[in-house]
């Protein structure tokens, strides 16, 4: 059989692309996925205790894009969920992003208005210009002490690099607030898929024009499949057989543990920002999905160098290396590179969906 499109990867980029091509343009699509499941890193499943767990870390859906929300709503119902994160320093828990409550508790202050909090930040921040890295962007907002308490060690654990070695975009993702809003995100649409991400992907990919092959490296079948065009969502360096060297990615090792109690921690996510603890955060999965159960399942995250590629590492050197691959990709016709790994870009889920929908509108037919 001949396909209009061969799509490599069944995560957000590949699945959205497949669904739109099949349903809107009547294209025949073959998805090849190296893992034994669809949904990419958003994959979730029920564990042995009946708790829906996110196998590759928490995926919290949030967006300001009506288009993205309405598109995904074709494949899932939603439950409202506003993510809250606490940072653990010693034995104390503090709201993060840093806000007025964080400041008051940490320094035993009584700042009441946003103006007072702004004045406090103004009094402690260090003027850094130009902003060249992740240390600059935080110290420029909240000063050295808050940077060292909340960002320095966590960043080093997460990336195995100092904040000053990373692009401003890394720590710049986390806002600093002058009010008492403890929500991690402030987007208009904040929900979780009612039956989980995997079910949403299953509905996305149930179409007569879509065929999915799992547990298969696309390179092992590419010579035997007939197709007109390719969508590639895997690591771009692997596509080109590492001709310019391996692009660095950060991976994570997850340790899951079920505990015989109703609830373990105050919020679904607690970040361990001290350097004395090896893991970066602990997720209590039933709180993400608001499940009721007598036991609870936790995951502990240990960032590591080897393993599945999760996060492109945003440094100037790595960007230069990626651009060599991007230039190579632009020489190819009828092959489209999209998604976090193919574009070596630290996308959120909604950004991947928005970008994929835009590519389909403008480029892919």
Account of the protein in words:
The chain is α/β, with parallel strands linked by helices and 365 residues long. It has helices at 12-25, 66-72, 100-107, 114-124, 134-159, 168-172, 197-205, 236-239, 285-289, 316-329, 349-362; strands at 2-8, 29-32, 44-46, 52-54, 61-63, 78-80, 85-89, 92-96, 189-193, 210-213, 226-232, 249-259, 269-272, 281-284, 296-304, 311-312, 335-337. The strands form 4 sheets. The chain has a 7-stranded mixed β-sheet with strand order 8-7-13-14-15-12-16. Helix 1 (12-25) packs parallel to helix 11.
Please tag this protein with its features:
alpha/beta, 5-stranded parallel beta sheet
How does the SSE layout of this entry go?
Blueprint (H helix, E strand, L loop, with lengths): L1 E7 L3 H14 L3 E4 L11 E3 L5 E3 L6 E3 L2 H7 L5 E3 L4 E5 L2 E5 L3 H8 L6 H11 L9 H26 L8 H5 L16 E5 L3 H9 L4 E4 L12 E7 L3 H4 L9 E11 L9 E4 L8 E4 H5 L6 E9 L6 E2 L3 H14 L5 E3 L11 H14 L3
Parallel strand pairs: 1-2, 1-11, 2-10, 7-13, 11-17
Antiparallel strand pairs: 3-4, 5-9, 6-9, 7-8, 12-15, 12-16, 13-14, 14-15
Helix pairs in contact: 1-11
- Rounded mean pLDDT score: 96
Provide a count of the helices.
11
Read across the widest sheet, the strand sequence of neighbours is: 8-7-13-14-15-12-16
Overall, the morphology is globular
**Major β-sheet profile:** 7 strands, mixed
Distance between the termini: 19 Å
The helix content is 25-40%
Uncertain parts: none
Rg for CA atoms: 22 Å
Total beta strands: 17
**Range of strand content:** 15-25%
Structural class: alpha/beta
Along the chain, the helix and strand elements come as EHEEEEHEEEHHHHEHEEHEEEHEEHEH
């Amino acid at each position: 059989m001949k396909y209009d499109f061969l799509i490599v990867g069944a995560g957000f980029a590949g699945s959205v692309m497949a669904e739109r091509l099949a349903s809107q343009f009547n294209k025949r699509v073959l998805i090849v996925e190296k893992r034994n499941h669809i949904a990419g890193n958003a994959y979730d499943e029920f564990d042995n205790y009946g708790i829906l767990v996110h196998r590759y870390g928490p995926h919290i859906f949030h967006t300001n894009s009506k288009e993205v929300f309405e598109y995904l709503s074709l494949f899932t119902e939603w439950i409202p969920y506003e993510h809250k994160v606490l940072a653990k320093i010693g034995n104390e828990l503090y709201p993060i992003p840093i806000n007025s409550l964080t400041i008051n508790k940490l320094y035993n202050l009584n700042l009441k208005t946003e103006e007072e909090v702004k004045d406090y930040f103004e009094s402690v921040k260090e003027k850094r210009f130009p902003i060249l890295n992740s240390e600059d962007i935080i110290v420029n907002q909240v000063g050295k002490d808050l940077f060292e308490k909340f960002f320095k060690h966590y960043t080093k654990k997460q990336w195995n690099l100092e904040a000053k070695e990373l692009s401003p975009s890394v720590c710049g993702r986390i806002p600093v607030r002058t009010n008492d809003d403890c929500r991690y995100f402030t987007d208009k649409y904040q929900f979780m898929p009612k039956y989980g991400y995997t079910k949403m992907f299953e509905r996305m990919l149930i179409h007569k024009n879509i065929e999915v092959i799992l547990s298969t490296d696309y390179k092992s079948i590419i010579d035997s499949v007939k197709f007109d065009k390719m969508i590639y969502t895997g690591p771009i360096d692997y596509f080109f057989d590492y001709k310019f060297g391996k692009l660095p990615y950060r991976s994570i090792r997850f340790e899951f543990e079920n505990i015989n109690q109703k609830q373990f921690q105050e919020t679904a996510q607690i970040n361990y920002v001290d350097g004395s603890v090896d893991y970066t955060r602990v997720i209590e999965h039933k709180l993400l999905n608001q499940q009721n159960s007598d036991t609870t399942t936790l995951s502990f995250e240990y960032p590591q160098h080897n393993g599945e590629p999760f996060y492109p590492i945003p440094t100037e050197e790595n960007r230069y290396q990626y651009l060599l691959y991007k230039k190579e990709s632009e020489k190819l016709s009828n092959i489209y590179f999209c998604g976090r790994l193919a574009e070596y870009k630290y996308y959120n889920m909604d950004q991947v969906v928005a970008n994929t929908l835009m590519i389909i509108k403008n480029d892919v037919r």
